[in-house]
Amino acid sequence: HYTYFEGTPRWPDGTQTLTYAFLPGNGLTDDVKNVFATAFDRWSEVTTLSFSEAESYNSADITIGFYTGDHGDGEPFDGVLGTLAHAFSPTNGRFHLDGDEDWVVSGDVTQSSLSTAVDLESVAVHEIGHLLGLGHSSVEEAIMYPTIAARTRKVNLAEDDIEGIQNLY
Ligand code: TQI
Ligand code: ZN
Ligand code: ZN
């Protein structure tokens, strides 16, 4: 079953569009940006929320960046595998990904020759759930289940994720 963070933090009542921006300097390709856009769409499809890229990094509700090792928030990344990414609860908006992972942006992660390959969209859909206020779920099929096998793609929201998010938005 789905959970929320302590105190059930959420984006305020009446929030329609949440904006997001990519850390300047990461030099992300359009392919990478499109993966995030697709991941956001999966949540907007089942809620009253929509997501759009912000005009500027400083005005964005949600900020997305790739970082390695200690990056100043007390939750250092750890190189290949282990922690892949983290996101904070509403209304913090910070979404950090471990730049040391072998991210698969397009193509089939299950066919990757790298045993360490991680599907970017799968992780993005999960972290966006956290950004919106979902904690972890006990339902194995749920996007918000706390573990995922290596070289796995899991991007479709389960009924449990949908119920959880629809209670918030
Ligand atoms: N990162 C953890 C996660 O997102 C960080 C974390 C642990 C966390 N507890 C939390 C974040 C509570 C918010 C609230 O769960 S991770 C998966 C999964 C990770 C794990 O790198 O371990 C995914 C990132 F669920 F598949 F194991 C993405 Cl999809
Ligand atoms: Zn961080
Ligand atoms: Zn999680």
What does this entry show, briefly?
The protein is α/β, with parallel strands linked by helices.
Please characterize this protein's 3D structure.
This protein is of the alpha/beta class. Helices cover 21% and strands 18% of the residues. It has helices at residues 30-44, 120-132, 159-166; strands spanning 17-22, 50-53, 62-67, 85-87, 94-98, 102-104, 117-119. Helix 1 (30-44) packs across helix 2 (120-132). It starts with 16 loop residues before the first strand and ends with a helix. The mean pLDDT is 97. The structure holds ligand TQI and zinc ion (ZN) (2 copies). The site of one zinc ion has 6 residues, from loops.
CATH topology: the name is Collagenase (Catalytic Domain)
Q: Can you give the mean pLDDT?
A: 97
Q: What's the helix-strand series?
A: EHEEEEEEHH
Contiguous uncertain segments of 5+ residues: none
Give keywords.
169 residues; alpha/beta; Collagenase (Catalytic Domain); two-stranded parallel ribbon; 21% helix; 18% strand; binds ligand TQI; binds zinc ion
Architecture blueprint of SSEs:
Blueprint: E1 17-22, H1 30-44, E2 50-53, E3 62-67, E4 85-87, E5 94-98, E6 102-104, E7 117-119, H2 120-132, H3 159-166
Parallel strand pairs: 1-2, 1-3, 3-5, 6-7
Antiparallel strand pairs: 4-5
Ligand TQI binds next to strand 4 and helix 2.
